[in-house]
Amino acid sequence: HIEPPSYFHAAAAATGTVTIFASVAECPWTASSQVDWVTITSGNAGLGNGVLTYTVAANASEQNREGTLFIADQSFIVNQGIVEATSSDNLPEVAGSSEEVLVNVGIITTIAGSGTEGFSGDGGPATSAQLKSLSGMAIDSSGNLYIADQFNQRIRKVDTVGNISTVAGSDKSGFSGDGGQATNAQLNSPRSVAVDSKGNLYIADSGNYRVRKIDTAGIITTVAGNGEYGFSGDGGPAINAELGPDDIILDQSDNLYIVDDNNNYIRKVDTAGNISTIAGNGKYGFSGDGGPATSAQFSRVEGIAVDSNGNLYINDSSNYRIRKVDTAGIVSTIAGNGTRGFSGDGGHATGAQLNPSDIAIDSNGNLYLAERSNHRIRKVDVTGIISTVAGNGTYGFSGDGGIAISAQLAYPEGVAIDSNGRLYIADSSNKRIRKVTFDHIMPCSQTYTVTPITVTHSYNAETGTITVNAPIDCHWTTTSNEGWISLTSEENGQGSGTVTYSVSDNIGMMVGPGMPTKSKGRSGTITIAGQTVTINQVGEADCTYTVTPTTVTHGYGTETGDITLTAPEGCPWNATSDTDWITILSEKGKGEGTVTYSVKSNSSECVNLVCPPSQSRSGTIAIAGQTVTITQYATLVQAVGIITTVAGNGGSGSSFNGEMSGDGEAAINTGLSPKSVAVDSNGNLYIAEPNTSRIRKVDTAGIITTVAGNDKHGFSGDGGPATSAQLFDPTGVTIDSIGNLYVVGGNRIRKVDTTGIITTIAGNGMTGSSGDGGPAISAQLCLPMGIAVDSIGNLYVAGCNRIRKIDTTDNISTVVGGNQDKWGFSGDGGSALSAEFSSLTGAAVDNRGNLYIVDSNNQRIRKVDTAGIIFTIAGNGIEGYGGDGGPATNAQLNSPSGVAVDSKGNLYIADLGNNRIRKVDTTGIISTVAGNGVTNPIRESVSPTAFREPSFSGDGGPATDAQLDTPTGVAVDNNGNIYIADTENNRIRKVMFNNSTQPKVEVATPIVSQAIYQTGDTIRVTLPSLPVGPEQYVGIGLPNGSLYLLNQLNSFLPFDNVTFPVWSGGEVAIEQPVTADLPSGIYTVYLLRMPTGVSPSSVKMEDWALGSAVFNNHTACTYTVTPANISHSTKSETGTITVTAPANCPWTASSNDGWITLTSGETGPGNGTVTYSVNGNYSEGPFCFVSPAPPECFGKSRNGTITVAGQMVTVNQQGESGN
Question: Is 1049 in the same domain as 1020?
């Protein structure tokens, strides 16, 4: 290939060079010029690498010109400008010249990555290869590029002819291979690479807590880190140290520098192999400038660089600064003001806003910053001035072959620079490596990029912004050709900047009373740096609107929803709601858009942790004259669980020194890192902790111990005590009916019997799906995560879109999936073996043998019945939160992780992404039983392992009010208590129901009737024939909160906790007049049943309805209507009246005047809004359009009334007094 691919020359005669790179020294090439004004002076043929020189003649014409050289069958483009006359209106001149200002720009191209995520392409062109997760890069002295392809677990190389290969790593994550060829080794999340002066390659093998080296023969070894996470080893051999490497760099003497990011240090390995700390005191924060670097605080260091003088540069990313450690060890800030953002180009770097992700330094001492969310690469020159050299600040992919500052980048994670000053960018979300080559000389007129080039505005008065991208030395001016477009920013600018402007409104005129005209669209232009931006403004006549859907149903919880609106570009719209329980979150917009809204929880106030059911309700959202009906389910009659912590003090519990704190002590005082939880028949808990490679037990006295694992990550110990064995990332745990414990991890299933001896019963440690029909111990397992055991001892293991069954003879088979392990969603209603899934993460079995599966990425829970037929029982496949109170198959889930089933068949789901536990009852209705879904906000300047404080609250109160943080597992005991692996809170939480031994009154049919009655009405309830048996009662809850019981004699008896009129069965019709001494409002009729053998007099009021439902507690109906007086002008106008009332209190609205029309809210319970319109108050006649008009053409002022909830609102309207 050739470098550069093109070049721009000024009008004067000039010379230039082109470098040719060939893959083999013997490869021949030739060169020729296609135009007579470009002459090749040397290098018109050669073998292997070479250099071609050429001359261009002076351009005396009045037009720019372009010519082509063919070099090794590739095109080199030569552009040449013209000589321009100068005047005071021209751009600035070059001193002593009449030419336009010439600037050095960077040209951007893609040199690796096809733009799609994956792994492919080795042996071919790098631009056709797939990359996965790009971070660090390095370039050797020959120009070969090395890429840390992190999640492909490989180091990739792009040679000088553009072909890609793998030089280290394989398709498996792990640690192996030292002493052998690097291509056979295992890596674990390699984050960075560096090359020393001899061509040896170094790798920050971050997941293995090591730095590894590949020598020039391809042999890999470890040069730093002992594989243990932690901080130790300073002053000794680096290979014995504990560290957490993130980035690495080498200086000219081949000393190695390591970003020990997990410990917040910079460490140095000298050429003798000894390690020391040279920056950072291990604490997160910002301090230390002007003092020793070892005393300074940093916050999330993400990159380092070292210059030719040995000065070290540190990307202190969460402090939004670049810090420098000089050769005397003193630290200072050289870029960034500590505020996240983008600003400061053209000024001193210490005043700029940054968001850096990586840094590099060139041979001249210029510093380059990859700025992740600014989608830019910036440069701090040797004078300290900052500027943008690549990226226009907008997310995306564009610009290849053009000026780098006009290109789009997408979260650039890494940056590197070679010895020739060429810049390399790890364009992370674009899955590409981009290259910027400099020394392309162009006139300013060819460098400007203006975006957008077309803007559409609504017919309202609005403002707009246009972005200009240009080199810092290029000036520009702005003009507009339309009076309705006004420039609001300076007309002159320099370099990159913005132009702001405003447009006046485009509203139709009134041609006569009640005769408006609709405006039409119009267009104008703004010219910036010689480029034209078209400004369009729609007219009222252009706008039509449609909305979808027109009806939406929500669960009873707090939820959000979206409505899609379709309209021509620029047409404005507003969204409003007619009720206070619907909140519009995106109230206005233009053209096509989305209206986002939320609904408040539709639940009644709980009394003594007992929550009565609510009523379903409906409201509307009005958008641009269109109406969307919003319906919300009522709450169920259900118990409120009380949440507590039973294990974990909030600390991680990770142990790296061989000691496990807390064992033998109270579980609530120890640190944990729970992934899943199981409970045995005696109520003992078992917790899988992958971070500590242990299984821990919490007995019924609350004492925690280790029952498997020795804190060492690996595989060993079969046939001996489980506590001496090594476990490999135990993620799942279950226990059978006789107390045998089963553990998932490392592609194996391990069993700990009741004597504490551990064995492997399934899996040979290899990833795959082979072995069906044979011994489970010889089979391959595929990343198993969830495990369940049925009543007879069969095990079910979830992994890689299959469920494998290990029967009681220890043979293995596939019972779910196996459809070539395809990812997708299909198969409901058919054989589970033919179904498709997307990440199976959990399983549970009920007492009838039905299997429940967490199909996580499909956002569903699926059930396989005993005949092997699969169907969905929860989740509609859409990620989100919604549906409580309705069918579970209509509900939204968000990355469910675990599942459990109780003895009654109720299903519990760890709804991880929603931070809730959901319940599907035996009728298929879904509800939330724990978690309020609230997470604490992200904090930027914190350690990389805790971007926000854990979301923990609620212990001792209702579980639905508590915060959970990433609940990954759930279990349920024989008493119906729920246990939650609250992973990010490092706790096991317990939700306890029926926490009193007091018998509860059961609800046979929760609500028989619920209706609004007023004085003079008669409550009529016809009850069906009731079975004879347990004592039964009919209760009526009154609006004022009091409770009455009815007997078959139609008597209305106040509940006194003593007299219980028994309902012995049979059909009866109740008729109870609402007399003047009874309150008006909502009455609720319940059918109650007393447990057998329980004395009614021993049952307290709060114990009614299974510890869950009490009678609705409503206050007497009072109404507030505002305002009491409203005034309007002579024009046709609209108005709004607000009604405030208790939730179930009814009201109506009416008007006594024909010129007042009620448009919405004529009836309603509770709070609401009445909207109305008034006609224009003027007369019309054949003489009313002359000037002056006669008196009869002027309307007189008038008054009317609107009656709302029995209260009168006076509406006044002025009369006309104009001409």
Answer: yes
Residues of the chain with pLDDT under 70: 83-100, 510-515, 604-614, 636-640, 653-661, 819-822, 937-949, 994-1035, 1037, 1039-1072, 1080-1117, 1143-1146, 1178-1195, 1216-1219
Residue 27 within a domain: yes
CB atoms within 10 A of CB 298: 30
Beta bridge partners of 623: 575, 626
Residue 997: CB atoms within 10 Å? 5
Tokens 């929880």 belong to residue: 601
pLDDT of residue 723: 93
In a domain, residue 10? The reply is: yes
CA-wise closest residue to 170 among 115, 119, 117, 217: 119
Kindly tell me the burial class for residue 1017, based on how many C-beta atoms sit within 10 Å of its own C-beta (0-12, 13-18, 19 or more).
middle
pTM passes above 0.85: no
| Structural domain containing residue 31 | 2-80
Structure tokens at 1183: 């003489």
What gap in Å lies between CA 893 and CA 874, rounded to an integer? 8
Q: Could you tell me how far CA 380 lies from the centroid of its own chain?
A: 33
Phi, psi of 423, deg, nearest 5: -100, 135
* Cβ partners under 8 Å of residue 953, min gap 6: 962, 963
Locate tokens 């992780």: which residue? 897
Rounded CA separation 279/294 (Å): 4
Tell me, yes or no, whether 352 lies in a domain. Answer: no
Write the CB contacts of 1085 (distance below 8 Å, at least 6 apart in sequence): 1007, 1008, 1009, 1010, 1019, 1021, 1034, 1035, 1036
As for how many domains the chain has, the answer is 6
CATH of residue 533: 2.60.40.10
**The pLDDT value given to residue 1019:** 65
State the Cα–Cα distance between residues 1054 and 317, nearest whole angstrom: 69
Q: How far apart are CA 853 and CA 1179, in angstroms?
A: 73
Please give the structure tokens belonging to residue 324.
């420098």
User: Considering the domain boundaries, does residue 909 fall inside one?
Assistant: yes
Residues 1020 and 984 in one domain: no
User: Do 1107 and 1047 fall within a single domain?
Assistant: yes
Same-domain check for residues 576 and 601: yes
Averaged pLDDT score across all residues of the chain:
84
What is the CATH classification number for the domain harbouring 931?
2.40.10.500
Q: Are residues 1155 and 1172 in the same domain?
A: yes
Distance of alpha carbon 896 from alpha carbon 874, whole angstroms: 10
Which of 678, 807, 818 lies closest to 744 in space, CA to CA?
A: 678
* Residue 269 to residue 213: CA distance in whole angstroms: 13
**In whole angstroms, how far apart are CA 916 and each of 282, 893, 965?**
35, 10, 9
Judge whether 1129 and 1022 are in contact, CB under 8 Å.
no
CA angle 123, 126, 130 (to 5 degrees): 95
CA distances (Å), origin 190, targets 134, 357, 766, 932, 1147? 10, 16, 22, 38, 68
Q: Which residue has the tokens 């009604």?
A: 1139
